[in-house]
Design a protein that fits this description.
Elements: E1 2-3, E2 7-14, E3 17-24, H1 32-54, E4 63-67, E5 72-76, E6 81-82, H2 88-107, E7 110-111, E8 120-122, E9 127-129, E10 136-137, H3 141-158, H4 163-178, H5 180-202
Helix pairs in contact: 2-4, 3-5, 4-5
């Protein structure tokens, strides 16, 4: 279904149920022993993260099985539409919900690491977050700002016609969860990250 930098995604079955298989790929430039260790740890961490966020009330696919020796995770197949493919009007509305979900993660000390409209599926009654391959535990404002900065970049590149409305909607939802004080701190850091990027480009 998808080939990524870190893993390949396949549509398969698990015990008769439609399933998603995620396999972490070998990095040829790394020492093989080190590479195996990194892939094992990241596979285990991702599965734990997916299970942990459910305790916060965040909806994510079920983890069916983890094979750490093969660096594989079997996940529940979720039927719905990627937010990326929705109409502009629905995307704007859904961004508030995305903001709330990211707010819940941050409030509980988790950075997602890949906040894009491709990593959320809207079903008939739920918004489901996907791909915790880059997630990590962190309370740092800088790390949480990186999540927001990435999402803002995605809106600017993939949803340019609605970027301002979608971003405002996201921040509205985010602020409802983390509070205005924390939201302003994170947004301020997003601006700092953007300034650093512009300065680097000029140099």
């Amino acid at each position: 279904m998808k080939k990524g930098a870190e893993a390949d995604i396949y549509l398969t079955t698990w015990n008769g149920r439609k399933s998603i298989l995620k396999i972490r790929k070998r990095k040829e430039y790394r020492n093989e022993i080190l590479d195996n260790r990194i892939r094992t740890l990241r596979t285990i961490r991702e599965a734990k993260m997916i299970s942990e966020v459910k305790s916060f009330g965040v909806t994510a696919p079920l983890v069916y099985f983890v094979d750490q020796n093969k660096f594989e995770i079997y996940l529940q197949f979720v039927s719905g539409e990627l937010v990326r493919d929705l109409s502009n009007k629905v995307i704007i509305k859904t961004c508030e919900k995305i903001g709330k979900i990211i707010g819940i993660l941050h409030k509980n000390g988790i950075m997602h690491g890949d906040v894009t409209t491709s990593n959320f599926i809207l079903t008939s009654d739920k918004l489901i977050i996907l791909d915790f391959g880059l997630a990590q535990r962190t309370e740092k404002v800088e790390d949480h700002a990186i999540d927001l900065r990435l999402f803002k970049e995605v809106l600017n590149s993939a949803h340019v016609a609605i970027v301002n409305s979608a971003w405002s909607s996201f921040l509205k939802g985010y602020g409802k969860i983390v509070g205005s004080s924390r939201k302003e701190k994170v947004i301020s850091q997003v601006l700092n990250i953007e300034k650093r990027g512009r300065y680097a480009n000029v140099i």
